[in-house]
Q: What sequence folds into this?
């Protein structure tokens, strides 16, 4: 019983020290429409302990876990895993309905993210593995708490 209580106290202590931050990136698609992607990062003692990516595209949206290759307080490198797909806009503020697509217009492991945490921004670069390592710069700004 004492072990369970100690574990519970440690778990509560971890989450009390944890700080969740949401970042937003507006991106223009080829059809001219503006879409919003979000990244939610959970920090504990100035270290990132968890991340979730919310991606919105013209035909499909997704939520994916961030799998960090490099995770420092100012430098990041990661891939996305555990995708869930939706026909609705996804964000940290919306509970979406998910489905399993029969076929995707893109490969799930098509690239990786690299970048820096600078002030209130995530300055990231996405690199496509299959497109001659073409890159796309993405700036995610910290969303202020409402």
A:
């Amino acid at each position: 019983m004492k072990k369970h209580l100690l574990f519970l106290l440690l778990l509560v202590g971890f989450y009390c020290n944890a700080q969740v931050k949401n970042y937003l990136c507006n991106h223009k698609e080829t059809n001219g429409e503006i879409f919003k992607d979000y990244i939610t990062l959970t920090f504990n003692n100035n270290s990132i302990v968890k991340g979730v990516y919310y991606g919105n595209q013209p035909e499909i949206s997704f939520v994916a876990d961030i799998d960090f290759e490099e995770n420092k307080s100012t430098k990041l490198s990661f891939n996305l895993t555990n995708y869930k797909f939706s026909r609705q806009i996804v964000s940290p503020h919306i509970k979406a309905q998910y489905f399993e697509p029969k076929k995707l217009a893109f490969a799930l492991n098509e690239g990786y993210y690299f970048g820096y945490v600078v002030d209130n921004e995530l300055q990231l670069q996405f690199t496509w593995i299959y497109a001659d390592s073409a890159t796309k710069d993405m700036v995610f700004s910290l969303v202020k708490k409402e």
